[in-house]
Each structure stands twice: as structure tokens, then as C-alpha cells.
Automatic annotation (TrEMBL):
InterPro entries: Apc5, Apc5_dom, TPR-like_helical_dom_sf. Component of the anaphase promoting complex/cyclosome (APC/C), a cell cycle-regulated E3 ubiquitin ligase that controls progression through mitosis and the G1 phase of the cell cycle. The APC/C complex acts by mediating ubiquitination and subsequent degradation of target proteins: it mainly mediates the formation of 'Lys-11'-linked polyubiquitin chains and, to a lower extent, the formation of 'Lys-48'- and 'Lys-63'-linked polyubiquitin chains. The APC/C complex catalyzes assembly of branched 'Lys-11'-/'Lys-48'-linked branched ubiquitin chains on target proteins. SUPFAM superfamilies: TPR-like. It comes from the Eukaryota. Keywords: Cell cycle, Cell division, Mitosis, Ubl conjugation pathway. It comes from Anopheles arabiensis (Mosquito). This is Anaphase-promoting complex subunit 5. Belongs to the APC5 family. One of its GO terms (cellular component) is anaphase-promoting complex.
Length: 766
């Protein structure tokens, strides 16, 4: 065996410390016995085929071989099992072995007790012979590697250690057989397919505590490394398929018990603690990474092993610094970052060095720009993250949309060329967010559906990270805006099941509370909306204050609404979208108070929207301006001009509520324009003709009014539907159309009986 091969199997070479040696356990010996009997059976079958005249020839089907190979893979890769569960696997439908193989194995186990320790020495010679006879297949196979590891370990064992292993194996076998005999039905209980159920693929059967002294290790080096690598990848890419936090911590505690110097186990424990926001345990796990002492008398590690350990230390230092920075401990964070920078320089890791310098700059309060160009493949990830961060800052600072989308195209090309699936998903999620900011809600919905339907696979691993959660939440909000609350709830439940843990859970929690506030406002349930706003405040204080003001305005509590809005607008760090919405609500407060200051608020909101290229928000400002001109200044022509500027944008991209308001206001404006024109040109006998023209115009716009009512009722916003009926009944009354007045009065009465609304809540534009 070459030195390079030996490094890969974690064995006796000088570059391995004593702490990394595998311990031969009774479970591993049982697996060797199974392999030995299978190879004997295989040889018997081969010899029988060579001498076809022999009667009672044994046949081993392809299914038998496949089941045994899958059984070996499970027994080798998974931690040690009690003998009772191992025996159950031998009889199970999925992993059951050939009857002759099982019978020979049972005979060997009984022989183990009667013959004595000689069986162990015979096994040592048998393994040597098996390796020599199957050199070709054992060079690269998992079984050959496993047997070579057992052979080398047994070769280094003293007679006393061999005796202890033999006694432990006998005790392991006796304990398992005793448990099997205590169960009714004995072997039949295992062969029943209904009673023997395999755990899910990502679940592990709990291991009973062993009582075999020094041979009680459950996890070998390779088993623990495989388990840690699998769970780390799942936590990063698809947390829903990883083990639950409690069970994962139990497995990690077992690994740490068997391999106390395994730094990867401590780091995975840190990730698991952060997953459930157990930050005290996370800090403790990171500190345990540094609390390792090499075994006494062990040779120093070779260069490759030393570099690996150094990388473990440097990323642990970086994460410990991040935790201290988040907890407000800058002095401790700087100390950890200095150590991280030193280790990253020693190991030549530019990615870790860039991350450490970025956090150091953050603590010092100044910005450290990333290099404009880089040829290092390890820095492409950091460059892509820098571009995404620049996009977010640019949208807040008012950069031109074409510039931001051009930069996003470059970023998408960079990510796709290198198959960085996490950044591809994050880039599409960022595109969805940008379209939402600029009011193109249909484009945002298309981007979200694109990400949810695309196959994000790299090396047979499907990405399921933060970008997916963000577009799911965007889709929930879009469905709620369209009045599809049932579908929104289905998508929200899917997001909860797919991302059950922090930090992704924060996104769907915020979305859940926001949609609940929105629906309660539509229904006029202001007490319920207030309660949801209080929950929302924990996740987004600015959005919660905006909704508090919305609720107060809906209740016509204008003093409380103004208090919330003044507090909100005084914040310099307020996002442009929230600031414009706050200015619109403030204008509504001034409108209902009869103050001319509403025009100033609307003008300020319009200028701010134009400055930040927020086309949809500008259309909303025009909508409110048209409402003010129509209802308070009685200038329908000027109102129509203002409404026309933003009507197309709202009808093409707006939520259902905004579209219904726009249609209602558009129809009212045309009717009022006809009435205003008739009043201006009214002379003697032309009064009847003017009334007829107004009735004709109102009849023409009835489908638009009805469409607005349907939209409001779909949103369960019955108070707004009543506003439409009140306007139609009043207008027909003024025009002398008694029959139609009574019709809409009756429809109002029916709706009021089903969904009563207090009178002061009516005719609030918001």
C-alpha cells in the first residue's frame, strides 16, 4: 500500500495521529463475518457451475447479490447497530440475504462461542487470503477498502487487545440473541413486511449504549466524515432533507464521544445551534473547536493534514468573530478576526481573507471595496455577492433601472458559467425584488415562477436555499394582492414545510403577518389587523408602523394615524417605497381633515418617486391627486388628466385593490365630467337633455362600476363595494331615476345585512 493511498484510508502512517485510528468494534467484526460467508457462498456457486453434474446446486440470483451489496453499503457507511437490529436487516425484504448465506452465518456465530479466540486469528488469516485472492476487485471497491482497514488494525493489535475484542463480540452477540428470544414470533416477527419498517432515508436508528469497554466506539473515521459532509451539504442547500435539530445533535454527541478531536463535528454542531437560534450553544461549540490537544506521543501532522486543521481553525475564528460582532462585542470580534487573517495568510486562502477583511472594515466603520477584476476562481463567489449588494444599494439610492438590470445580466452570466446554483437562485430572486420595487408586478411574478420551475441541480444536488424562500414569499404576496387568499395560503404552507428553520423562516413569518394584516384591513377587522401589526413589528418595524397608520386611518382615528406617520417619516433610513406610501397616507389624513397641506404631501411623494424611478408609486400619487381634485375641488377635467397619467400603469401591474379603486374613480370622473359640462351649458329647455345625457353616460359606465364591485368583493372588501352602491344610488336619485336608485339601494341593503359596516368606515379612499 502506497503512502498516498494510506493517507486516504486514515490509517497508521506517521501523518496520522493516534486520535484518528479506527476502533474495531463487535459490529465491524460481524460485518467481516458476513463478507467472509458471502465470498465462500459465491465460490461454492462458481464451483458448482463448473461441475454442472452435481445435484442440489445452489443458485444466487441478481436480486440476492443486489440486496447484499445494499446491505453492506448501509452497514459500512452508517454507525454501529445493536445485533438485534442488524439481524432484523438480514431478514428484511429490502436487505434480506440468501437463505444459505444466513444459515452459514448463524453457524459461524455459534461456532464463535464454542471454538474460542482461535476464530479471531483464523479470521485474520482469512482476510489476508481474501485480499490476495480478490486483488483486482478489492483494489478500488468499498468492500476491499473495508477489509484492508480491518486487516491493518488487527495486525497492530496485541494479544490482550484481541482477547478483549473477542469477549466484546461474544457479549454483543449474546445480548442481541437474548433480545431476539424475548420477542414473540422470533424470526417471523422480522420477516413480516408490515412489522419491519425501514426508517426514512435521512433518518438514523438510535444506537443503544454499548457496554463493551474500549470497543464501544460507534462511529469510525470515515463514517463520521461522510455523515458530517452529508449533513453540512444538506443544511446549506436543502435543509428540509437534513436531520431534525434534536436528532442531529444526538448523532453529533455520539461522534464527539468516539472522536473528541473531530473539529468538523464541533463546527456542524455550531451550525445546528444557529439553526434553532441557540446562540449560547453555538459559541460554546465554536470554542470547543480550539479546545483540542493532540494525543501524547503522537507524531506531528504532515503538511496536508496541518493545512486542513488550519482551515478548520480559520473558519471557526471567522464565525466566532461574526457572532461576537452581532452580539455587540467588538473587542472580542477584532481579536478573532486578527487570528483568522493570520491563519488565512498562512494557508493561502484568499476567500477567507476577503471575508475577514470585510468584517474588519465593517467593525471599523469604513467600506472596503472589492477588487474590480479578479482572475482567482475562489473570488468569483465574493465578486457576485458584491454585485448583488451593489444592486440593493443602487435601488435604494435611486440609480437608473437600466444600469442595475445591465449589471444583473453580467452577474447572471458570471454565475451560470461557473454553475454557482446558490448565486443563480439569489440573482433571480434579486431580479424579482427589483421588478417589484419598480412596480412591474407581473414581471416579478414571472421571474418568481421561473425560479420555482427551473431545475437548479449541480452534481446531482438540488439547491433549496434562501433565494427559493424569497420568491415563494413574493408569490404569496402577489396572490394575496390578486385576492387568491386560498392559493396564497397553500404556497405559504409549502414555504413553511420547505424552510422550517431560521434564518429562512424569518421571511415567511414576515409574509404571513403582512398578508394577515392586508386581509384584515380589506375585511374591516381593525382589531385583528392591530394584533397582526404588533407581530409584524418584530420583523419589520417600518412596515409595521405603516400598517398601524393604515389601520388608524381606516378607523378614521386621524390623530393616531398622524402620530404614526410623523414617527415614520422622521427616520432618515426609511426605504423609498415606504416613505412614498407614508406620504400618501399622510395626504389622506390631511384630506379628511380638510387641510390644503395634502397637495404638498402629494407633490413631495411625486418628486420622490420620480427621483427614484418608481413608476408605479408615481401612478398611485396621480390616483390620489385625481381623487382630491374630483371630490374636494370639484374639478373633474383636471382630475381626469391626472388619472389618465397613471391609469394604464395601475391596470397593467397593480394589485386588485388598486385596480378596483382606479376603475371606480375613472368611472366617477367621466360621469362628473358629463354633469359638469351639462351644468356649464345649461339653458332653459336644455335641462332635460342634459339629464338624459348624464343618465346615458352613467349607463355606459355601469359595467366599469360592476367590475370594480366584483374586484372589491373578491378581496372581501365589502365596505368599498358599499361605497360604489352608495354613489350609484345617490347619483340616480339626483338624476330622478327612481327605479335604478331603488335597485342599488336594495343591493346595498343586502350587502349590509350580510356584512355590516359602521357608517364612519365608509367612503375612506386610503
Amino acid at each position: 500500500m502506497s503512502k498516498k493511498d494510506s493517507e486516504n484510508v486514515c490509517f497508521w502512517l506517521p501523518n496520522q495521529t493516534a486520535g484518528k485510528m479506527d476502533v474495531l468494534t463487535p459490529h465491524k467484526m460481524i460485518v467481516v463475518f458476513l463478507i467472509q460467508e458471502y465470498l465462500r457462498l459465491k465460490k461454492t456457486v462458481t464451483d458448482g457451475q463448473a461441475h454442472a453434474e452435481q445435484p442440489h446446486q445452489i443458485e444466487v440470483s441478481a436480486g440476492d447479490r443486489k440486496r447484499f451489496c445494499m446491505l453492506l453499503l448501509k452497514l459500512i457507511q452508517y454507525p454501529d447497530l445493536p445485533y438485534k437490529e442488524l439481524y432484523g436487516l438480514l431478514l428484511s425484504p429490502e436487505y434480506g440475504v440468501h437463505p444459505v448465506h444466513l444459515e452459514e452465518f448463524k453457524k459461524l456465530m455459534k461456532l464463535l462461542k464454542t471454538v474460542g479466540i482461535d476464530v479471531m486469528f483464523d479470521l485474520y488469516n482469512e482476510i489476508d487470503k481474501l485480499i490476495m485472492d480478490n486483488t483486482a476487485s478489492f483494489q478500488i471497491g468499498i468492500v476491499g477498502l473495508y477489509l484492508r482497514k480491518v486487516f491493518v488494525t488487527m495486525d497492530r493489535m496485541s494479544f490482550h487487545e484481541m482477547k478483549d475484542l473477542y469477549l466484546a463480540t461474544i457479549a454483543y452477540y449474546d445480548k442481541g440473541m437474548h433480545a431476539i428470544r424475548l420477542e414473540p414470533g422470533s424470526d417471523a416477527n422480522y420477516t413480516d413486511s408490515d412489522s419491519f419498517r425501514q426508517p426514512p432515508p435521512n433518518q438514523y436508528t438510535p444506537i443503544e449504549p454499548s457496554d463493551h469497554g474500549s470497543h464501544s466506539a460507534k462511529w469510525s473515521v470515515k463514517q463520521s466524515e461522510l455523515f458530517i459532509a452529508q449533513q453540512s451539504a444538506l443544511l446549506k442547500e436543502n435543509e428540509a432533507k437534513a436531520l431534525p435539530p434534536k436528532e442531529l445533535q444526538t448523532r453529533l454527541n455520539e461522534i464527539i464521544h468516539d472522536r473528541p478531536h473531530c473539529s468538523q463535528a464541533y463546527f456542524l454542531s455550531y451550525m445546528n445551534n444557529v439553526r434553532v437560534r441557540e446562540f449560547f450553544g453555538a459559541v460554546h461549540a465554536l470554542q470547543r473547536v480550539f479546545d483540542r490537544t493532540p494525543s501524547a506521543g503522537a507524531p506531528p501532522p504532515a503538511t496536508s493534514a496541518g493545512a486542513s486543521e488550519g482551515k478548520d481553525y480559520q473558519y471557526s475564528s471567522l464565525n466566532l468573530a461574526i457572532l461576537h460582532a452581532e452580539f455587540g462585542h467588538p473587542r472580542l470580534a477584532r481579536a478573532c478576526l486578527r487570528e483568522c487573517v493570520m491563519l488565512a495568510q498562512e494557508n493561502g486562502d484568499p476567500t477567507c481573507l476577503q471575508l475577514a477583511h470585510a468584517w474588519l472594515s465593517h467593525l471599523e466603520g469604513h467600506c472596503m471595496p472589492l477588487p474590480d477584476k479578479t482572475t482567482s476562481g475562489s473570488l468569483f463567489h465574493a465578486t457576485s455577492l458584491h454585485i448583488l449588494s451593489h444592486l440593493r444599494q443602487g435601488s435604494i439610492a435611486g440609480r437608473h433601472p437600466s444600469e442595475l438590470f445591465g449589471l444583473l445580466m453580467v452577474n447572471d452570466l458570471l454565475n451560470c458559467q461557473r454553475s454557482m446554483m446558490d448565486l443563480v437562485a439569489t440573482g433571480i430572486a434579486e431580479r424579482t425584488a427589483l421588478w417589484t420595487v419598480y412596480g412591474k408586478h407581473e414581471q416579478a411574478s414571472l421571474c418568481a415562477q421561473l425560479l420555482l420551475n427551473v431545475e437548479l441541480k449541480s452534481l446531482d444536488k438540488t439547491y433549496n436555499g434562501n433565494g427559493i424562500c424569497q420568491v415563494l414569499c413574493a408569490l404569496v404576496v402577489r396572490l394575496a394582492h390578486l385576492g387568491e387568499f386560498g392559493h396564497a395560503l397553500v404556497v405559504l404552507q409549502h414555504a413553511k414545510q420547505r424552510f422550517p428553520r431560521y434564518p429562512q423562516s424569518r421571511d415567511w413569518h414576515l409574509t404571513d403577518h403582512y398578508v394577515s394584516v392586508l386581509r384584515a384591513l380589506y375585511r374591516g377587522r381593525f382589531a385583528e389587523a392591530n394584533a397582526e401589526c404588533q407581530h409584524l413589528h418584530s420583523y419589520d418595524p417600518h412596515l409595521a408602523l405603516l400598517q398601524f397608520a393604515h389601520v388608524a386611518l381606516g378607523r378614521q382615528d386621524f390623530g393616531t394615524a398622524e402620530t404614526f406617520l410623523v414617527q415614520l417619516l422622521a427616520d432618515e433610513a426609511l426605504a423609498p417605497l415606504v416613505r412614498i406610501r407614508a406620504l400618501l397616507l399622510s395626504a389622506n389624513v390631511h384630506i379628511h381633515n380638510g387641510q390644503a397641506k395634502a397637495f404638498n404631501q402629494l407633490n413631495a411623494a411625486q418628486m420622490y418617486a420620480q427621483k427614484h424611478h418608481l413608476q408605479y408609486e408615481e401612478a398611485l400619487v396621480n390616483l390620489h391627486l385625481a381623487y382630491l381634485l374630483l371630490t374636494h375641488l370639484h374639478a373633474p377635467k383636471q382630475a381626469f388628466a391626472a388619472l389618465k397619467a397613471g391609469l394604464e400603469t395601475i391596470l397593467a401591474n397593480g394589485p386588485l385593490y388598486d385596480r378596483a379603486r382606479a376603475l371606480f374613480l375613472f368611472a366617477r370622473t367621466l360621469v362628473e365630467m358629463e354633469r359638469h359640462g351639462a351644468t356649464d351649458g345649461e339653458e332653459g329647455g336644455e335641462e332635460a337633455a342634459a339629464t338624459a345625457a348624464q343618465l346615458q353616460q352613467l349607463t355606459t359606465m355601469l359595467p366599469t362600476f360592476e367590475e370594480a364591485v366584483e374586484m372589491f368583493e373578491k378581496l372581501e372588501c365589502y365596505s368599498k363595494a358599499k361605497d360604489v352602491y352608495v354613489y350609484l344610488a345617490r347619483t340616480y336619485h339626483e338624476l330622478g331615476a327612481v327605479e335604478k336608485r331603488n335597485r342599488y339601494s336594495y343591493r346595498y341593503r343586502l350587502l349590509e345585512e350580510q356584512y355590516p359596516t359602521e357608517r364612519q368606515y365608509l367612503n375612506v379612499f386610503l
